[in-house]
Amino acid sequence: MDRLIYVYGLVPHLEMEEKPLSTNIPGFEGEPLQSIDCGEVTAVISGLNAEFNSEEALKDKMENDMEWLQEKAFHHHETILALYKNYTIIPLKFCTIYKNEENLLDEIRKKQESLKHTFTVLQGNEEWNLKIYCDDNVFKNELVLHHSEIEEKRSEIASLSPGRQFFEKRKLDQLVEKEIEAEKTRICENIHARLMEFSVHAAVKKNWSKDMTGTQEKMAWNSVFLIDSNSVDRFQDIIRSQEESLKEKGWRLEATGPWPAYHFSSFS
Length: 268
Description:
The chain is built from 10 helices and 9 strands. By secondary structure, the protein is of the alpha+beta class. The longest helix is centred in the C-terminal third of the chain and has 35 residues, at 162-196. The radius of gyration is 25 Å and the shape is elongated. The mean pLDDT is 89. Keywords: Coiled coil, Gas vesicle.
């Protein structure tokens, strides 16, 4: 029976030699994980039944079977986390599948030098994520209270006729909203710049909606950092210090990690 190759990630061959792959980690269909060597790179894989896991069958499951998708996506993530504990790993995307071993080996051979460089960048470094949230109502009250231009505008409007007040208040509301967004951006950029001092690489990602985060506050910033393991404590100290200084103004900082380097490695 034909077997497809499901790939979880790539690790340095020397690391796999020093610590052979555990047979206790189940693969996509329950069988133990396997490894395939290609020069200085080892692929961690799982065999798949080709009859039940064709491209069309997998596409149908991903689009129409949410329970299956959640179970398998969670399995993929947990497997990479287990591998990350023991190896420097380039994690591959969910459902990265090759028709056969030779196709996978060809792809690795083509990218051998690039993969070696990526391993060098990742070794001794950790990926961390920082999400910054802001309660706009709390921050708005705080900002208005200490914003001289807004206070001056309010005083001017109070002396106008009722008709003029209506239009001027609308203009003031627009000014307040503009100032809020500008100040939020400034605060987030300043925090990001401070943390960049401890980062090998960093990237700003798209903010998540409240539906995705499940939080009452809006996400104001979403960033990822690749940090030297020796600098992680200082990185976290700065985050705690920044949150302490901002929490009464409606801010909350959420740092998570270390994670496999999803954002700082690629095999695509």
